[in-house]
Amino acid sequence: MALVALLAHGLMPGIVAGQENSAGPTVVAEASFAVDDPPSAPLEAHQLVLEFAPGAVAALHHHGGPGFITMLTGELSLVADGEEHTYRAGDDFIEVPESLYEGTNLTDAPASLMVTYLVPSGHPVTTYANAGSTTQSAPPPQVVTQAVFEIAEPPVEYEVVHQLLDYAPGSWALAPENEGDTFITVVQGELVARDEAGAETVYAPGATRTEEQGVAVERGSTGGEVVRIVTTTLVPAVDETLWSRFGQIGTITMVACVGLVAGGFMLRRRRVT
After folding, report:
1. Which residue in 42, 79, 196, 250 is a FRET match for 5, CA 20 to 30 A apart?
2. Cα dist from 235 to 24, 163, 240, 260, whole Å
3. Hey, is 58 helix, strand or coil?
4. Are 207 and 84 contained in the same domain?
5. 118 with 160: CB under 8 angstroms?
């Protein structure tokens, strides 16, 4: 597909295939979004990579929950409630469920984007309006990858963080402990994940993976091509994380104080006797 060619363009393997190195992934795109009005749980996170060919149109529509969008390549013209905006590679924006949208690629080059929709489980993601409009006859955007992740208990307050990552052939990296639950889809190549015991799992293009908050994993590429993945992470709000940490510290402190008091009491009894 044109998107895969665009995504791979200009990326040169860092080492000979079959060898391993510890170089981390290249961050091709990254964005974070505040979630001002989180949908009610349980949720579904619909994670997609879409390609708009020249002239392609996402006809007038609305969503069942907020959509968090990161432009990867090209340019997109978006009409939101009658107001037109233009977004280019590197830009990000949010679509809210109360508004109507229509997106069009008015240029001669393909455009692509990553989007995560958060909707209550069982609710429709996209509903189209004006079924008889002329834009309905235009070619729609093409789905490069699409995945659905179930979220039973999201954080009370959180941000959505997008990343588009490339792993050079033969490269391995210990990913930092996730700040929140992370949802991964492989766009191209074969991603290999190693657990703490060294066991490896291979994920082909289109495959998905979920990594829990606080778990450090090792990801890499053992093939001869660049591995590209998209990730969506639900990062708990700072105050929520700190509250959790303070709670843990408080519990440890309380146990230590009880131990000290008990130890002092026993020592005093021994001295008295």
Report:
1. 79
2. 21, 13, 10, 37
3. strand
4. yes
5. yes
Q: Are residues 140 and 246 in the same domain?
A: no
- Domain shared by 179 and 83, yes or no: yes
Residue type, position 31, single letter: A
Residue 75 shares a structural domain with residue 108: yes
> Which residue shows structure tokens 């002239």?
55
Q: Which domain holds residue 119?
A: 2-236
Average pLDDT for residues 243-258, to the nearest whole number?
46
For the chain, the domain total comes to 2
β-pair partners for 193: 201, 219
Which of 228, 221, 232 minimizes the C-alpha distance to 163? Answer: 232
> Which tokens in the block code for residue 219?
């990801």
Q: Are residues 231 and 261 in the same domain?
A: no
pLDDT digits (tens, 9 = 90+) for 152-204: 999 999 999 999 999 999 998 887 777 899 999 999 999 999 988 889 999 99
108 plus 130 within the same structural domain: yes
Helix (H) or strand (E) holding 256: helix 238-272
For Cα atoms 68, 59, 33, give the angle at the middle one, nearest 5 degrees: 5
Distance of CA 166 to the CA centre of its chain: 14
Lowest mean pLDDT segment, chosen from 12-21, 78-87, 115-124, 127-136: 12-21
User: What CATH number has the domain bearing residue 186?
Assistant: 2.60.120.10
Please name every residue paired with 145 in a beta bridge, in sequence order, or none if there are none. 49
**Cα distances (Å, whole numbers) of residue 198 to 137, 162, 216:** 51, 27, 13
Q: In whole angstroms, what is the distance from residue 51 CA to residue 118 CA?
A: 20
Q: How high is the pLDDT of residue 222?
A: 87
Give the chain's mean pLDDT: 83
> Do 259 and 186 share a structural domain?
no
pLDDT at 50: 98
